[in-house]
Amino acid sequence: MKQLIRDLVSQALTALLAAHGSDVAIPEFLVENTKSREHGDFACNAAMAAAKLLGQKPRDLAAAIVANLPANANVAKVEIAGPGFLNFFMRAESMYAVIGDVLRLGAEFGRTNLGANEKLTVEYVSANPTGPMHVGHGRGAAYGSSLSNILSAAGFDVQREYYVNDYGRQMDIMATSLWLRYLDLHQITTRFPENAYKGAYVTEMAAPLAAEFGAAFVCDGEALMANLPPDESQGGDKDKHVDALIANAKSLLGAVKFRQIYDFALARLQAEIKAELVKFNVVHDEWFSERSLAESGALQSVVAALTERGQMETREGALWFKATEYGDEKDRVVVRENGQSTYFASDIAYLKNKFERGYDRAIYILGADHHGYIARLKAAASGLGIDPNRVEVDLVQFARLFKDGVEVSMGKRGGQFVTLADLREEVGTDAARFFYVMRSHEQHLDFDMELAKKQSSDNPVFYVQYAHARICRVFERLTERGLGAFDVALGVANLGLLSEARELSLIAAIGRFSEVINSAANSRSPHIIANYVRDLAAQLHGVYDSPPRLEILCADAGLRNARLALMAATRQVLKNGLALLGVAAPDSM
RNA sequence: GCGCCCGUAGCUCAGAUGGAUAGAGCACUAGCCUACGAAGUUAGGGGUCGGAGGUUCGAAUCCUUCCGGGCGCACCA
After folding, report:
1. ipTM score here?
2. In Å, how far from its chain's centre is CA A247?
3. Strand B, nucleotides covered by protein (CB < 7 Å)
4. What pTM, to 2 d.p., does this model score?
5. Which residues of chain A have pLDDT under 50?
6. Buried b (16+ CB within 10 A) or exposed e, A341-369
């Protein structure tokens, strides 16, 4: 409908420009939804936008546009208002078609072709497999998953990916931590480093490790603890301490056995993360292993390639990528003095790999603390000869969890933190997912756990789901009252009987769904969907409950089926909207 | 110190690409069920859009500057 108005106004403007003897292009203008009924259904700012170009006052030009507007059966009237807005009042019949569309398309209703099948890879969550996910990961998971759904609905070809950091120091620390717990089980005395993983989940993995490998990893505890530099509380450096311990562990155990422990920890932790994400309605098409980059030689070859392109420089024994040449604030180390590659080296290889797999664009969803990465990743792309605009980073701000009005600490200190699983078990997947995305991702989020559990209209998830369940109930009553089945064709044929303002307003809201999807996709903002679905639910409740009550199951078959068609369409759009957010639409509550 | 994000009603927040009288929810006040779910709904009060300049027909939105909050600035991952 907006496109129709845009075309009509364009035609009028073209005629006016021709009459003016000007051969310039039509200036940009907007067709918007109006905020109030007195401004009609759609408003257009073309007269204001073109006023300067044609040297006319906006209101005069608006009158000229109206005079040149081709007639159209869908337009009831056009008014000029305010500084020069063109307010379009549509014929009610022209708005009804959308109801038939919804009922015909079902779950497909709302899909658009904004993305034109552009191939995107969206990377999200990517939590290190060194422990359970915490509530911060939850927001990234909810956001990334919802955004992927939305982009897909908007016609992008979306691939969802999880980057598994299964390579490097953190996993070495993880393996060593597990081994120390295993040694505890075998009554071998060691000292647990301050920088190791202290969570109970590590201790809990020790028994299964012993069950699978028996005493294969038992060793001399004194030898393991020998020649270690002091830990932090002993006046030393915790990083140096733990690194020395890892070196001891590797030499005592040998590479094969160390790797066995490492793989054991990795497999279990990753399986836990996967299982939790499934419960959270979050899916990934690909779990991409960082280690595979090193083992396939991709890591080494990207370093070689960059060196060949003159993007690298050796300084103080280390190999640096000259990121400053591409707008980063400083150069970045890729290979350390000790010969080990950095995490950033893997990032570059991974970035290259993504584009080699044929994606038009790579979207990274990262926590807000990673904002320093944006310039770095884009510089890496430039260095590889890839247009940095094809690399997009969306940052998700932090979430704070509140329980009984007090903030729940998320610090990892002492292994005490609220896991995503804890949160999900307490409030449920639906509430958690909705709450995570109902605010802009650029905004800090206060997550109220009590509110998320409430069964009343204060709780937006409940409110929306309730609207869906209520409609389902109406259809149950239909059968119970012996009024016969819902006759879609009859309903659609009689939509003209829906003339109440609240019904028309609900129809208009349904008609906006596609546009809302596009808007959410363009601005990478799932919260737009959350707000929409809440507004739709409010309209539904309004139709349903505001006095005088609207009798849906009325005696007149035509009107009854028309109203049922509206109900069915509303239910479908609520369900489709919630599905984009990974939230269920239950039939009863 | 430098960089990124944020500041809108008592509280939590929407207001993409500048548009008409800045909107929701909560909380507060007053109404609405013999009813297809009241687990709901209707109405009301409530604002110097952090401050000050600027850009223009028009600024919460863009620019400058200041104030206030969050985060980041590793041969860590």
Report:
1. 0.90
2. 40
3. 2-6, 12-17, 19-21, 23-27, 31-32, 35-42, 57, 70-77
4. 0.91
5. 411-416
6. bbebbbbbbbbbbbbeeebebbbbbbbee
